[in-house]
Amino acid sequence: MRVLFQGDSITDGGWVRNADPNHLMGQSYAYLVASRVGFLAPEKNHEFFNRGISGDSCAKMGGRWQEDTLDLKPDILSILVGINDVGIEANSPRELAYHGMRGMYGYLLNETLQVLPKVRLVMMEPFFLDSGNMERARFARMEEGLQDYRRDVRELAEQYNAVFVPLQSRFEAAAKRMPANYWLWDSVHPTYAGHGLIADAWLEKAGDLLLK
């Protein structure tokens, strides 16, 4: 099976566009998922691709959808996007940014299923923690906006029969064990421990698609 991870910097992880297998997947949760599945089920010989791009909003991701998603013809498409849209919203008129994200996300899912009707979708919940290094007013705007985005991703996952990977509650639970900046160093981007948490959540919800 061909497995594609799509999204922003959280997925990106510094992957490179060449055939070097040492850097092909970057160093994010996508790498951890691929490494675990590859180790547990080598006989299945799954192919993994990372096309996350740092800084992408849903609209920017959509601008490269043909080349970086549809042309790869994945059997499983995993998407984690939204935190940059929330950041845009925090500095822009709310309605413009908010409706733009949900509309684009739905459009991309429709287009994908028209071109690849058998693809299995995995949709990951955007997340956010207070790591203590963000200006308080901006943090409050981000926190408020992300509540709507999380709801929308969950609803879209139900609508499109996707596997939904909840992450916010996992990070909140993890922050009771160790401080938030142990998991998300700047409230947004994961540390190695945070990427491990995401990979574990992904495998719990979607691992059977690859291991059974």
Quickly list its features.
single chain; 212 residues; alpha/beta; Rossmann fold; 5-stranded parallel β-sheet; 11 helices
Overview of this protein structure:
The protein is α/β, with parallel strands linked by helices and 212 residues long. It has a single domain (2-211), classed as Rossmann fold (3-Layer(aba) Sandwich). The chain has helices at 9-12, 29-40, 58-63, 65-68, 83-90, 94-115, 136-159, 168-174, 180-183, 192-206, 208-211, and strands at 2-7, 47-50, 76-80, 120-124, 163-165. It has a five-stranded parallel beta sheet, with helices on both faces. Helix 2 (29-40) crosses helix 10 (192-206). The longest helix has 24 residues, at 136-159. The radius of gyration is 16 Å and the shape is globular. The model has no long low-confidence stretch (mean pLDDT 92).
Describe the structure in brief.
The chain has 212 residues and is α/β, with parallel strands linked by helices. Helix content is 52%, strand content 11%.
Secondary-structure blueprint of this entry?
Blueprint: E1 2-7, H1 9-12, H2 29-40, E2 47-50, H3 58-63, H4 65-68, E3 76-80, H5 83-90, H6 94-115, E4 120-124, H7 136-159, E5 163-165, H8 168-174, H9 180-183, H10 192-206, H11 208-211
Parallel strand pairs: 1-2, 1-3, 3-4, 4-5
Helix pairs in contact: 2-10, 5-6, 5-7, 6-7
Q: Could you give the order of the helices and strands?
A: EHHEHHEHHEHEHHHH
What separation lies between the terminal Cα atoms? 12 Å
Strand order of the largest sheet: 2-1-3-4-5
Number of helices: 11
Task: Estimate the helix proportion, in percent.
Answer: 40-55%
- Describe the largest sheet: 5 strands, parallel
